Amino acid sequence: MMLKSNVYDIIIIGAGIVGASVAYKLGEFNDNLKVAVIDKELKTNKHQTGRNSGVIHSGVYYPKGSLKSENCLSGYSQL
Fold this sequence. Notes:
This protein is an alpha+beta fold. The chain contains 3 helices and 2 strands. The chain is flat.
């Protein structure tokens, strides 16, 4: 399949958790954006995403109010 880059505003390479999340957030940010997500596989999560530990870090290991803690809590709430 050939994508014409002038048809899309953004093309994301990779349909794992990061690529899918970026596409989702872009859609939330601006629903007029034309976003394409492409991957070499027919299904999502066939590589790194499907093989990580699946842990959602809650931020309890970091000092309360630290940037790392806030980042973990923000990510957790967005799931």
